[in-house]
Amino acid sequence: MTRKIKIDDDLYIGADEFIVIAGPCAVESQDQMDLIGREFHKLGVKIIRGGAFKPRTNPQSFQGLGFEGLRILKALKDAYGFKIVSEILDPRDVEEAYDYIDIYQIGSRNMQNYSLLREVGRQDKPVLLKRGMNATYDEWLNASDYISIEGNNNIILCERGIRTFNDYTRNTLNLMSVPIMKSKTDYPIIADPSHGTGRRDLILPASKAALAIGADGLIIEVHPEPEKALSDGNQSLNIDEFKGLLKEINGLKSEK
Ligand code: PEP
Ligand code: MN
User: Fold this and answer.
1) Who surrounds ion ligand 2 at CB < 5 A?
2) Which H or E run includes 94?
3) Distance between Cα 102 and ligand 2 center (Å)
4) pLDDT tens sequence across 102-148
5) What is this structure's pTM?
6) Which of 160, 204, 227, 240 ranks highest by number of CB atoms within 10 Å?
7) Closest-lying ligand to the alpha carbon of 163?
8) Ligand nearest, relative to CA of residue 161
9) Whose C-alpha lies nearest to ligand 1, atom 10?
10) What is the number of other CB atoms lying within 10 angstroms of the CB of residue 30?
């Protein structure tokens, strides 16, 4: 039995509903997020993603808006009732971020940042634990133990792809981790087809596969103008493409 992670009174990850989390890689501006908020509200999206602290490979790249980004997300949450997931990079920011977000995201690069894991483990909000890009299943499980040992069992795993010799995709989305991690833990697991493939054209097929294999949901990057995105535009859907994906996924869900 999958553990149901409570996000809100009537919203769980790991229950019957296949949850689609979406939003831009990075929060870039108030205007960008206002547009997303309006559109996602119409589409019935319940959980929005948006990076405020960005773990960029190159220190010259856009690093995110920091707490200003979290304030923009919070305004959206207050206006529409969305739940917010956002990545925290530094253990010193965990407490201050508490009031802005509903789910702490631990990114791939920080899956083995043990002081960060312990710090979110001391909070009473759910944690989205992404798989390290080089992590084995046991290393990923150990990372989840660093969170739970501090008292927080509200963990959602996220398969976001691993590094392999495959060079046609940014990472190799290893969907086999869904049944494997389900056999090892009772945590729900969602898939990230954006980082898992790095390619907009592969997001839909990867999403269908994640649903078919028994994932509890998806986290997808969506940007109003992906070609202008400050990060990860190549793996972001525009709003119309996202609408199309939701339609297909909802159709498949009703067939199940
Ligand atoms: C992200 O979600 O934008 C991100 C940086 O993901 P990952 O940690 O999986 O690379
Ligand atoms: Mn991204």
Assistant:
1) 25, 232
2) helix 94-97
3) 19
4) 999 999 999 999 999 999 999 999 999 999 999 999 999 999 999 99
5) 0.98
6) 160
7) 1
8) 1
9) 108
10) 14
